[in-house]
Amino acid sequence: MRQPKLNLPPLVRYKYPIIGHTFLYLANSEEFLKQCKKEYGDIFSLYLWGEVRTFVGKEHLQEILNRDDSFDAEEAFERLLPLSAMFKHLVKPIKELKEYVISKLRTYTERMQKSLNLATQEYIGDCDEPKTIRNVYYLMSKIICNPIADIFVGQEESQYEEIINTFSELTTDAVKISRIPPFLDFIYPKLHYFIVCAILKLGIYNPAAKHEKVLVKHLKSQIYKRLQEKEKYGDSWKRPEDFLQDLIEEEGFDPNNSISYTKLAQNLCFLIFVSIHTTSSSCAHVIMDLASRPEYIQELYEEQLEVHKEADENGILPFESLNNMRKLDSFIKESLRLAENIANLPHTVLKNYTFANGLQVPKDSLAIPYVDDVYLDESLQGPNPKSFEPFRHLDTNAPATKVSKNYLLFGGGKHACPGRQLAINEAKFFLHNIILKYNLRTESGKIEVPMKFGPMRFPSRAGIIFEKRK
């Protein structure tokens, strides 16, 4: 039967055959998408990398995030980075993450702070003399991965340099394969994806393989040790409190089956991938904004001094102190608002879909939220949405962890990022210590803005000067 003709979104005019809008999109996404929205309306399509992709602005964007039966973010991400080919036994333990980590964040409060403080001391130091650090994202990944490793694989394993390197470097290594431009898609749609999958499945090149091997080796050693100690000490055995112990007590884990260790390692690789990069990138953006705007540090410092009065004799804050970091929370949210990608969270269209305005997108196409249309809208963000207003969110009753129509960092709907509480809590504990311990300023003395590539924004690599607070 002949398929009915769809009422497709307008396709923006382009000059160049084959490449379509690809060059303009990569050269200046911010201005290009703004102009497209102005001329063509809230929903429009571009010809990028050999296929038509539809961009959806603020008026209809929530339809993408909330219609699970019609749009799928995981499938779209798989096209960008085929994790199923990279990790053959991957299950994506989101349910386990929620149950064994997110629901128990209160119990990890002390360990998280101790680990962050030790890592800060190791990688930044006392700074009695001013110390300049460049590429702050790399620094953040080294610091942030320590408490995550502690929570995921335990205090003992997180002391190994090999483990810390895997936690801090896995994401950077894994995404290398996604940075290859999909030129092959100009020849045939999805050809690039099929070639990448073949390379990964055949073992020709897999940037995550070395990290999987490290985890398997350490997990075997640690699990054997725990099983032996449990048998030896019986009821007096002190059960380790970490994600690893929860996972190996699951019914499906078999300590005598090598595949069980492979599955465990690959599932941990996935969680490392989705947790370390997001938190490290967020902290890098916030640190750069703090250093770029020293006029706000004193006010934040005074708040953190008050919060620190709640600390115990070892300087460890109770979990409830996070709620009292209201100015810091607003600063973090504002920093992340202006640092998010211009267009983000692509979704695969699962079936022909009709938007509320009558425009339709076909099955298997890509629908991409035009995020800047939300973040630069005065009705959603308040006055001067382009400017950095650190305390814009102070009295909104919308903390940095809350998903809303005007804040899309963690997605939306039922599939909003389940680890957002972990990421923001870790960032706040880390920044609490940083603000109390150091004065910050940019090496240039100017406001440093995120780097751009196409629709993506990355933390600036400009130098930050850390100096011990007198």
UniProtKB/TrEMBL annotation:
Superkingdom field: Eukaryota
Keywords noted in UniProt: Heme, Iron, Metal-binding, Monooxygenase, Oxidoreductase
Family: Belongs to the cytochrome P450 family.
Pfam family, one: p450
SUPFAM superfamilies referenced in this protein's UniProt entry, alphabetically: Cytochrome P450 (SSF48264)
Organism, as annotated: Rhizophagus clarus
Record: residues binding heme: C417
Cofactor: heme
Any GO MF annotation of the entry: monooxygenase activity
Name of protein: Cytochrome P450
InterPro entries: Cyt_P450, Cyt_P450_CS, Cyt_P450_E_grp-IV, Cyt_P450_sf
